[in-house]
Amino acid sequence: MSLKIHQDHGRFKQIVRGKIKANLRRYVQKGEMLGKRGKDTISIPIPFIDIPHFKYGHREQGGVGQGEGDVGQQLSPGAVQPGDGQQAGQGEGEHALEVDVSLEELATILGEELQLPNIERKGKEQVVAQKIKYTGVHTTGPESLRHFKRTYKQALRRQIALGTYDPSRPIIVPTREDRRYRSYRLQQLPETNAVILYMMDVSGSMGDEQKEIVRIESFWLDTWLRHQYKGLECRYLIHDAVAREVDRDTFFHTRESGGTMISSAYKLCKDIIQADYPSSSWNIYPFHFSDGDNWSADDTRHCVEMLKADILPHVNQFAYGQVESPYGSGQFIKDLRESVGDLDNVALSEIADKDAIYQSIKDFLGRGK
Q1: Which residues are CB-neighbours of 212 under 8 A, at least 6 positions away?
Q2: Which domain holds residue 2?
Q3: Do 257 and 360 sit in the same domain of this protein?
Q4: Do the domain assignments include residue 84?
Q5: What's CA 36's distance to the chain center, in Å?
Q6: Residue 286 and residue 304 share a domain
Q7: What residues contact 5, with CB distance under 8 A and at least 6 apart?
Q8: 342 and 220 in one domain?
Q9: What is the pTM of this model?
Q10: Helix residue spans in the chain (DSSP H)
Q11: Contact present, 300 and 216 (Cβ < 8 Å)
Q12: Which tens digits make up the pLDDT trace of 20-54?
């Protein structure tokens, strides 16, 4: 019976996985799903899964086995007596089942559906973390590591062997000799760490819809990169004519106005990388989102110079997503294509609306950098 339950559960998981893959493009475009995140899982509405249920016959009044008729009388499917009730509607109702999917599984599905290659880690050095690994049970040790279940079982064995255990009054009193303690050793685990530096233009031309597109896309970028790296940090930079670092909530909800100087964001990004993230130890991913309307051609040239000299030599991949605004899109992505578009660690993407997020994720992550 237990084996059959596990088999049924496994089949159900495969059905859910197939439904998620079939509808992944729709999930990628929807922002409300991101609000249903737990610590390590996310709730996804899965439509059109037929959950086993009882189906009642035509006579649905009076309870089971009650109503008019004699005992033993056979009723044909059409033998429905007239009575009070409402006229039934036509067609079957659509029901969505919400299932919890781990972010690890979601990342795997994303990689399979978009055919994303695993990332080639750039850093030669590795960050070494210590992990406690329990190796056994000893008769001595600190009280903080006492194994209560083993201690109880040892005391129970002793009292049964001595004949002092009374089933009608099952009191177990461990002695000092009954105590058992976990033993452990420290394990050195090399980890390859990564950092994402999100940069977003918050000038007057970037509205709520454009920020929502950035919020949705950043969730999927986070999900994939966390699947690839054990340690992932995120830093958030916003800019109009000046740039500053903020927390995640401020990043997605800041309302600003004024002009745009993209070079201010690249300068702050460069300073953070130099101060906190040596490229020998970190895999670095700057992601920049803007409507492309920069202040001047001189500032664009300054951006390109910083990219070539101070950012691109130290990062796994620089990605720029140009989000179309109600006022139109600017020249910046065209200038980047001409100056650095052919470089191996540069990914550029135009994001016209939410429908374009799916392809943009593939543009950014499809190179395996």
Answers
A1: 31, 354
A2: 1-51+95-115
A3: yes
A4: no
A5: 11
A6: yes
A7: none
A8: yes
A9: 0.65
A10: 2-22, 24-29, 103-114, 148-162, 208-228, 248-253, 262-276, 297-306, 332-339, 357-365
A11: no
A12: 777 777 777 766 555 555 566 767 666 555 555 56
Task: Please say which residue of 169, 188, 207 terminates a domain.
Answer: 188
User: Looking at the structure, do residues 159 and 248 belong to the same domain, yes or no?
Assistant: no
How far is C-alpha 314 from the geometric centre of its chain's CA atoms? 27
DSSP assignment of 144-177 equals: GGB-HHHHHHHHHHHHHHHT---TTS------GG
DSSP 287-339: EEEE-S--S-HHHHHHHHHHIIIIIGGG-S-EEEEEE--TT---SHHHHHHHH
Q: What is the dihedral of CA 11, 12, 14, 15, to 10 degrees?
A: 120
Instruction: Give me the percent of the chain exceeding a pLDDT of 70.
Output: 69
Pairwise CA distance, residues 141 & 145, whole Å: 7
Specify if 87 maps to a domain: no
Separation CA 22–CA 109 (nearest Å): 10
Q: What single-letter amino acid sits at 167?
A: P
pLDDT digits (tens, 9 = 90+) for 230-289: 778 899 999 988 999 999 888 888 776 677 899 999 999 999 999 999 988 888 999 999
Do residues 181 and 99 both lie within one domain? no
Domain boundary among 82, 115, 148: 115
Pair (111, 225) in one structural domain: no
Number of structural domains found in the chain: 3
